[in-house]
Amino acid sequence: MFKKILDGFINQPLLTSLFLADFFVLLFHRPPFLFSLVMMGALVAMAMYFGQKLMLFKA
Questions:
Q1: φ/ψ of residue 32, rounded to 5
Q2: Over the Cα atoms of the chain, what is R_g?
Q3: How far apart are the first and last CA of the chain?
Q4: Residues 30-37: what's their mean pLDDT?
């Protein structure tokens, strides 16, 4: 399962770097409220994209 996740992140280097940068900025820095809402929305959208792309558990 972890190999599939890492392969998915390696195949999308731009989205992975944006996802990680966005996550760590929200985790360790306090941006203004409206900007943090936009960043949280982008983080959720990228997480949903990665979830759909990786499909760890096929139904």
A1: -55, 155
A2: 13
A3: 15
A4: 91
Task: Please tell me the distance from the alpha carbon of residue 10 to that of residue 28, in angstroms, as a whole number.
Answer: 24
Which residue ranges make up each domain of the chain?
2-54
Sequence-distant (6+) residues with CB within 8 A of 26 are 36, 39, 40, 43
Residue type, 53: K
Which pLDDT tens digit goes with each residue over 10-31? 888 998 999 999 999 999 998 8
46 in Cβ contact with 18 (< 8 Å): yes
Contact 13, 55 (CB under 8 A): no
Residue 8 CB: number of other CB atoms within 10 A?
17
